[in-house]
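The material for today's practical consists of a large collection of protein records. An example says more than a description, so a record of this kind follows:
***
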Amino acid sequence: MLNEIVHKKGYEVAQTKKQLPLPELKKQVKPGHFALSTALKASDWGLIAECKLASPAKGALCSGYTVPELAKTYSEHGALALSVHTDPHFKGIITDIAAVRAVSDLPILRKDFIIDDYQIYEARAAGADAILLIAAILSDYQLVDYLYKAWGIGMDCLVEVHTREELHRVLKTPAELIGINNRNLTTFTTDIVNTFEILPECQADRVVISESGIQNALEASRLKDAGVRGILVGEGLVKAQDIGRKTRELTLSH
C-alpha cells in the first residue's frame, strides 16, 4: 500500500509543478520560526492532535466534523500542536492547512508523503510550521537534504521511523525531532510496544514523539515515564465519543 501511495504521489507532485513551477512557488514562501520544536522543548509533554477524516486502511473515520472543526476542538482542549493530512488517501488537501490556521494559532505539522523538495516549499507557502519525513520512503541523502532545506525556511521536521534499522539511519543525521510510528507498514496494525522497544536506542538529545495506536491516558503516561516527549494521535481522537474530553485526557492535564 505504501509503495502504491508513493508512486501516485510522484505523479501528483509532477502535475502540481506544471501548474505552479518551483521558482514561482518559492516567491510565496515566508520563513517560519520553528514553532513546533519551540513548543515541544518548552514543555515536558505535548499532544500533537491529528485532523484525520479517513485512512487508506480503514476508510472513513470521522464524518461528524470537518478538519477545521477538529482543529478548533483540539485547540480549545489543550493540544500542543496540530497535524494536518494533505494526502487524498486520507481525504486531505493542501488548502486544509490554511483552513486550520484560520481557527488556531497552534503549530501545524503537514502530514504527507514527502518525496520531492517541491513539497517542502509548498508546505511552508500553505502555512505549515513543520513537515513529516518518513525514513522508509527516503534515501539517506534525501533525509539530510530535506532537513536542511526545511530548516532553511524556518520549518521543523518530524522524522518518522518504524524500526531500529530506520532509527539508526536517522541518528546519523542532525534530525532533532524523531517520531516512532507504532504502525506496522506491512499489516497496518498498531502496537505501542514498538516505541518501548526502539526508544532505548535513541540519543537523549533528540525529542521523541510516539505516533499511532495510543488510546488512553494510561498508555500516554507510560510513554511519558519512559522518556517520550509527546504523542501524535489521530484515530484515537476522531473516533472518540467526546473528542474534547479525549483530547484533555491525552494531554495528561486531568
Summary: The first strand starts at residue 46 and ends at 51. The chain has one domain: 2-22+33-250.
